[in-house]
Design brief:
By secondary structure, this protein is α+β, with helices and mostly antiparallel strands. It is 28% helix and 26% strand. It is built from 16 helices and 28 strands. A hairpin with a 2-residue loop joins strand 4 and strand 5. The structure holds zinc ion. Residues 249, 284, 288, 318, 321 line the site of zinc ion.
């Protein structure tokens, strides 16, 4: 196949120096001078990252020789009018081991094209080809390629030519190159691959078996009749490292970063906590293939890759996905209902531990993701609420409400399916290009959609849960499902009301929680704790031991350094707040309640599918 009018040649020329060489050929450049820009952010990670700062050297030429380039803002270059095709060559520094950017060394290369492919402005809708070139043989041999990018001449898992129908598609298909363990399975009418980079002893058979069940369950949720996924191929690009965690969703793939110990090993019986975490992450990103990569907020249609793009709806896209990620594990049978209730309890605890939940609403948290959630500091626990965690709890509250009020006839699943058929199913054409009439979920469209899907008017509840800051009435909502929600203090010792971090033999307050004992006594984030009642504290454990011998209401003397000044404080200890959530299925202890018990069992079965 020949090159398209926009063609990128990508070569890992210097793995030791973490540099890719990219040559962009534009067959029909703008006669007035072609502009090209690298995105300032990558969809799915809502923070301005200014990827163009990693472009090290850039030059252009045409058939007559060198063409002058002007840099006109932090992301954009403009070439002088060219004769014939314009060729732009540049190197990109790639040393970010995350799922958001690009990474290259002698062990592997990972590419998001938001980091590597200059967008040819004005020609974003044109198809493009990418030629992936292997690294120098002196550095690495035998590398393979894993990507959901359609092949255009390259052999399966080989270097060579790939193709994207437009720029939006190109940046939605990351590439992994190197030596990786490769697994493959069929599910939901699609071929799935798992490529695991990094030293690993992963039990691929177990992993693909469990993932297949999760994938089938998700496809069935959106397409109950056909069970067909909206793609024919899907790739889990997985980097296994000693310590790390993250995922980024794409339309036909996901990039995952996980702890090597979280992957299953041969002989693993019941899933470890780490493996449940990994499956939850994979489930989360896979769910996004429907929800946020095809069903999208209107604000993201199309993406403006150069500016913050605000929406008050991230709680629907990230929160609902966080709700369904673990729910899909229990419905597919890879974890037990009791496992699921434990995970749900952790999410409830997480939200309750942050005083910021009483200050910021979910809608505000969504809107300010760019400057608050993604740029957290010492005061974040006091000032923000996670649209992931609280969003998941609102999804839970909504699901439980719909199920209880319709005796299990309607649920959040119906809302998801309505969003899917209305916005998601035909978002892309069969070739992956943008459909002519792409439509996203408008800012005010959700509540009417719930009414349409369920017949229930939940305007009042949704407003309180999404625009308000009061705690959600989860105990009451779980009641008809025969589940008790218990809240207890995290431990029996009285509380200092802080988050702590220890390093280098120092115990530092990372956050003084609003209205906690430390805050009231004048202690602050950044203070280094030295002694409590004249006894040295250098670790969280020694502090805990000291506090365990005191009770709420006691006054203790705390010495601490603020910067280089030793200060002392009288702290009146408080009772530890009841933030530990435990969910338990109620046992049938009264014969008179037999009918209610059975009804609860039915509702629970409809919800958890077990
Ligand atoms: Zn997500």
């Amino acid at each position: 196949m020949k090159d398209e009018a926009i063609h990128y040649r990508v070569e890992p020329i210097d793995p030791h120096g973490h540099r890719f060489q990219v040559t962009l050929t534009i067959r029909e450049p703008d006669p007035a001078g072609q502009r090209m820009a690298l995105p300032a952010w990558i969809p799915g990670s809502y923070m301005i990252r200014e990827f163009a700062r990693h472009i090290l050297a850039i030059a252009a030429h045409d058939e007559r020789g060198s063409v002058h380039l002007d840099k006109i803002d932090k992301d954009t270059w403009r070439a002088a009018p060219a004769h014939g095709a314009l060729q732009v060559s540049y190197t990109v520094y790639a040393w970010d081991l995350s799922v958001r950017a690009a990474h290259l060394d002698a062990t592997h290369g990972f590419i998001n094209f938001t980091s590597l492919a200059l967008c040819v402005l004005g020609q974003q809708l044109r198809p493009c080809t990418v030629e992936l070139v292997p690294p120098p043989e002196s550095v690495a041999t035998g590398w393979k390629v894993a990507t959901s990018l359609p092949r255009a001449g390259a052999r399966a898992h080989g270097f060579g030519r790939y193709r994207a129908p437009d720029y939006d598609a190109l940046i939605d298909h990351p590439v992994e190159m190197g030596h990786f363990a490769l697994g493959r399975f069929e599910a939901a009418g699609a071929t799935h691959e798992v490529a695991v980079t990094g030293r690993t002893d992963v039990d691929m058979k177990r992993l693909t078996r469990d993932l297949a069940r999760i994938c089938e369950t998700q496809a069935r949720l959106f397409e109950p009749r056909s069970g067909q996924a909206p793609f024919s191929r899907y790739v889990f690009l997985t980097m296994a490292v000693g310590d790390g965690y993250g995922g980024l969703e794409h339309r036909d793939s996901t990039a995952l970063l996980c702890q090597r110990n979280d992957l299953p090993h041969a002989g693993l019986q019941t899933p470890s906590d780490g493996y449940k975490t990994f499956l939850g992450l994979a489930s989360h990103e896979y769910f996004h293939a429907w929800h946020v990569k095809r069903i999208k907020p209107e604000a993201f249609v199309p993406y403006d890759l150069w500016h913050e793009t605000h929406t008050r709806l991230l709680w629907i896209f990230e929160g609902f996905t966080s709700y369904y990620d673990d729910l899909m594990l229990v419905r597919s049978g890879v974890i037990t209902p009791q496992d699921y209730l434990t995970l749900l309890g952790r999410t409830i605890s997480l939200v309750l531990r942050g005083p910021g939940r009483l200050r910021q609403s979910l809608a505000d948290s969504s809107f300010d993701a760019w400057t608050k959630y993604y740029r957290q500091d010492e005061n974040s626990p006091n000032s923000i609420v996670s649209y992931y965690a609280k969003g998941a709890l609102v999804a839970l509250a909504l699901d439980l409400t719909l199920r209880a009020r319709t005796q299990g006839q309607r649920s959040l699943d119906d809302v998801m399916r309505l969003m899917w058929t209305r916005y998601g199913r035909s978002f892309y054409n069969a070739d992956g290009a943008a459909a002519m009439q792409q439509q996203g979920l408008a800012e005010e469209a959700f509540e009417p959609l719930v009414r349409e899907a369920s017949g229930l008017d939940l305007k009042r509840e949704l407003r309180a849960w999404v625009e308000g800051t009061a705690d959600l009435p989860l105990a009451r909502l779980l009641e008809p499902f025969g589940i008790d929600l218990g809240l207890t203090p995290a431990d029996n010792s009285p509380s200092l009301g802080t988050r702590l971090a220890s390093s280098g033999g120092e115990l530092r307050i990372s956050t003084a929680l609003t209205d906690g004992a430390a805050h009231r006594a004048g202690l602050s984030a950044g203070d280094v704790l030295v002694a409590v009642d004249g006894l040295k504290v250098a670790s969280e454990a020694t502090l805990k031991t000291l506090l365990a011998r005191r009770k709420a209401g006691d006054r203790i003397r705390v010495h601490a350094f603020r910067r280089d000044e030793l200060m002392d404080f009288e702290v009146r200890l408080q009772a530890a707040p009841a933030t530990e959530a435990k969910l338990a299925v109620r046992t049938n202890d009264q014969a008179s309640a037999h009918a209610a018990h059975q009804a609860a069992g039915r509702l629970r079965k409809g919800w958890l599918g077990a």
